[in-house]
Amino acid sequence: MEAGITNTIDKILKKSSKKITISNSNIKTHLPRPTLHVPSLTPHIQHLKSLKSQIITLLPHRLLTYSYSISKCITFYNIQDYQKTIEFAKSAIQNNAKSVKAYIYLAKAYHRTGELKLAYENLKKAEKLTSNKHNLLDIYKETGEILQKMKQLNNAYTHLLKALNLAKELHDTEAQGAILNTIGTIYYNKKELDKAFDCYLDSLHLTLDKKTKANIYNNIALIYQEKNKHKKAIKYLQKAIEIAEKEGDIHNLSIYKLNLGYIHTKQKNYKSAIKYLSEGLDGIEKLQDKYHLSIAYKYIAKFHENRKEEDLAKEYYIKSKELIENKT
């Protein structure tokens, strides 16, 4: 926008520099020359020059501010400080309203804090601003994950297929693995456990990323617990937890501990159950992840329900339901 204004100002200044001439060829010499009163353009020209100077001065400042904000945004996202990520992503957008990267990181931070509607809305803004295939791959993949959590499974699947096609076209094997992992979760939510398991295995073969592998182990564990194969479920969750601890992935570590606590609840190992549920809940609360906080409350409700503590179970079921209704 500023560049457009600068160009307009240059055109105005160019036109104003031309001399104003009056032809007297048709005026009789014995008549007095008419006096042409032309308003002085000097003040206006000076104002336009000043405005142009201000814009040119402002442009580098805004670019520097944008670069700083987007750099900070990425840094805070990588260390899982999502509130700071949101703050700097918004600052980046203020200085560059067409920043696809800023909208994507804003959406990712909202996603990780359980603000699924806001995450989805910002991804749609990013999608409208880009035709870059790498950006679109990231957008479709993230949108699919969010829609899966919002239980819009068919819509999620459509976005993930778009992402998968782009990942294949771009020869991005790592992305293919991550996308298949999420597609597996869609099958899991549809209770198509064998299809989910196959997706997880394919994903595991494609990815080299340790954090993604840990997430796949977690998902395989959930299938085993659905099939009441609790020993295998615990084995895979312990593998996921071990990787998350080594990688410093506090967010997923907390989620895996919640899942492990839930499995111990089903086995009536209440001492282990409350240990992992408490540790998982503590991590999720610190990260302000409302989506997984609702899951934590549901697991704690199950814990109290199994122990015949009906009032406490009811209290946590209500807390879980309220978070789900407000954030999805």
Layout: helices, strands, pairs:
Elements: H1 2-16, H2 42-78, H3 82-95, H4 100-112, H5 116-129, H6 133-149, H7 153-169, H8 173-189, H9 193-206, H10 210-226, H11 230-247, H12 250-266, H13 270-287, H14 290-306, H15 310-327
How does this structure look, described?
- The chain is mostly helical and 328 residues long.
- It has a domain of 87 residues.
- Helices cover 80% and strands 0% of the residues.
- The protein starts with a helix and ends with a helix.
In short:
This protein is mainly α and 328 residues long. The protein has helices at residues 2-16, 42-78, 82-95, 100-112, 116-129, 133-149, 153-169, 173-189, 193-206, 210-226, 230-247, 250-266, 270-287, 290-306, 310-327.
